[in-house]
Amino acid sequence: MNKLLRALVITMAMMSFMPAVQAAQGDELAEIRAQLRGLMQRVEKLEEDNVVLKAENATLKVQSAAWGPPTQGAMIKVAAAPAPATAADATKAKTPEWIDRITVKGDLRYRYEFLSDETENLAGVQTTADRYRDRLRARFNVDAKVNDDVTVGFGFASGENGDPRSANQTLTGVFNRKALDLDLAFFDWKFASWGDLIGGKMKQPFYKPAQTIYVDNDLNPEGVAVAFNRGKWFGSAYGYFVNEISGAENTRTADTMLYGGQIGAKLPLGASNLTVAAMYYDLAAGRGRAPFFNNSSNGNVTVGTPAVLANDFRVIDLAAEYSFKLAGYPLVLWADVAQNQGADDNDEAFSGGVTFGKVTNPGSWEFSVGYYSVEADAVFGQLFESDFAQGLTDSDGVILRAGYGLNRNWTLNTTYFLNDRNMDLPNMFGDSDVDVDRLQIDLNFKF
């Protein structure tokens, strides 16, 4: 196109100057040649300007994508967000900041259970038939960081009638809807690198050997606690509401409370570890009252009608756990003893056992066996393990456990209770040493 334009200009110039060339002589011909050279230079200059204009036009097209619509005759540039370096950065850029401060976790357990209770009436006839049932436990917890020092938590769990020692729901009731109750609601203020102040309905802040039964694992106490963990030392102190009392001015209105504290140490012994702990708790304003769930003392001695606690509970609990490896597998030996200084008799408890292996990954396994003997007033019955001997103190026996990792966050567990209840105090039928056997097969799923 440029060559064609140049040829056209030269042709027109030659035609316009042809008469002058024919008439010119000498100096006039030289002048015409000079004019032609000037005209050619002007054409070349126009071509160069055309190239520059094309480049500027291309640049303007690229820049126009970053400009917004004109406002009042001017172009307002829109600031473009920088492109994320990675896909993870892109996802994070789209996620609200508060999401990073939320942690969600929970579990679902499906259980098959067989139960045999050989309680007999005065005629020697067993009063309760063997029981077979399937049960569910569902728990859902949310923790949220308020700031660098404070966390709040909420939890919901299945359960029957709000039982504090169990979140199980039996599959029955003609497909009725199952209850979901508030299981946790607490704040946790980390006031120091080694200490926490916790308030609300919380998880147990004290140490227990893994297989102990003096405090049920499903029980979440309510009140205020302080916990610390510094170097080899750990411990806690707590004040929990059992029953808040109100009434007339001339009545006894002191609240039934559970006060306690624990001190312990984790002691490395070469490749092994020894953990020891001592705990004391006092059930304040409990004697002569009925601080019972579902109107049951859970094996504690009662007097009067209606039944009230016969004794105080000032319980000392000493626990130890020794862990090491045998043939490359974890091995734990443990013992837990308790004595109630608020009772004159039926006031001692002893338990101990061994756990071999540990379920961590798919294909891993564990096995444990423990022996337990708990006299009627050795521990406060409302805390006692709900599955051992029908959840009653004044009982003894063995617990066998086994676990296997089926897949990630999915385990198979089996527990067999071989227990006797009413080992010292006869039941209402005068029956002692009643056999209670319970088999549980669980599928546990965690997320």
Q: What does the model show?
A:
This protein is of the alpha+beta class and 447 residues long. The chain folds into two domains: 2-61; 105-446, Porin (Beta Barrel), CATH 2.40.160.10. 15% of the residues lie in helices and 46% in strands. The chain contains three helices and 21 strands. The chain has helices at residues 2-23, 27-64, 87-94; strands spanning 67-71, 74-77, 102-117, 131-145, 150-158, 169-170, 180-192, 195-201, 222-230, 233-243, 256-269, 272-284, 302-303, 308-309, 313-326, 329-340, 348-357, 365-374, 395-407, 410-421, 434-446. The strands form three sheets. A 16-stranded antiparallel beta barrel has the order 3-4-5-7-8-9-10-11-12-15-16-17-18-19-20-21. The chain has a two-stranded antiparallel ribbon with strand order 1-2. β11 (256-269) and β12 (272-284) form a beta hairpin. α1 runs antiparallel to α2. The protein is elongated. The two termini are 72 Å apart. Residues 7-25 and 70-79 have low confidence and may be disordered.
Features of this protein?
2 domains, single chain, 46% strand, alpha+beta, 16-stranded antiparallel barrel, 447 residues
Fold topology:
Layout: H1 2-23, H2 27-64, E1 67-71, E2 74-77, H3 87-94, E3 102-117, E4 131-145, E5 150-158, E6 169-170, E7 180-192, E8 195-201, E9 222-230, E10 233-243, E11 256-269, E12 272-284, E13 302-303, E14 308-309, E15 313-326, E16 329-340, E17 348-357, E18 365-374, E19 395-407, E20 410-421, E21 434-446
Antiparallel strand pairs: 1-2, 3-4, 3-21, 4-5, 4-6, 5-7, 7-8, 8-9, 9-10, 10-11, 11-12, 12-15, 13-14, 15-16, 16-17, 17-18, 18-19, 19-20, 20-21
